[in-house]
């Protein structure tokens, strides 16, 4: 009997659905694993998109939508482009502290943004190369 060779939940699936072959059950298992992997990747992409949304709402007015600091406010304060080597070489911890505690005229966002939002913004800034 082919069912005896099926490991784990594949065997149970074939037992419950007599019209399902062992091969179909294995294909179903593979498709399920691929779906889970795609959902995991999509959630990480969503986190990056979330960082972009927070950046746009809270940071772009000074740093510019592209992080170039080419806004009137960015120019008047002498901000460096976020794509500059000086900014990009900063560690995630340093950037997180900067966003959380502020610096100069930049306000502190601790208490205004969640830790997850701050981390998402830091990850987004690292993409501005």
């Amino acid at each position: 009997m082919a069912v005896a060779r099926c490991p784990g939940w594949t065997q149970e699936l074939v037992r419950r659905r007599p019209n399902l072959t062992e091969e179909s059950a294995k294909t179903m298992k593979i498709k399920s694993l691929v779906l889970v992997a795609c959902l995991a990747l999509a959630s990480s992409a969503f986190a990056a998109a979330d960082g972009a949304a927070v950046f746009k709402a809270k940071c772009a007015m000074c740093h510019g939508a592209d992080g170039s600091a080419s806004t009137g406010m960015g120019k008047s304060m002498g901000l460096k482009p976020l794509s500059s080597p000086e900014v990009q070489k900063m560690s995630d911890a340093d950037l997180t502290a900067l966003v959380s505690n502020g610096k100069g005229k930049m306000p502190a966002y601790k208490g205004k943004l969640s830790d997850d939002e701050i981390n998402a913004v830091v990850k987004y800034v690292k993409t501005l190369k």
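The two ends are 59 Å apart (CA to CA). The domain at 7-126 is CATH 1.10.760.10 (Cytochrome Bc1 Complex; Chain D, domain 2).
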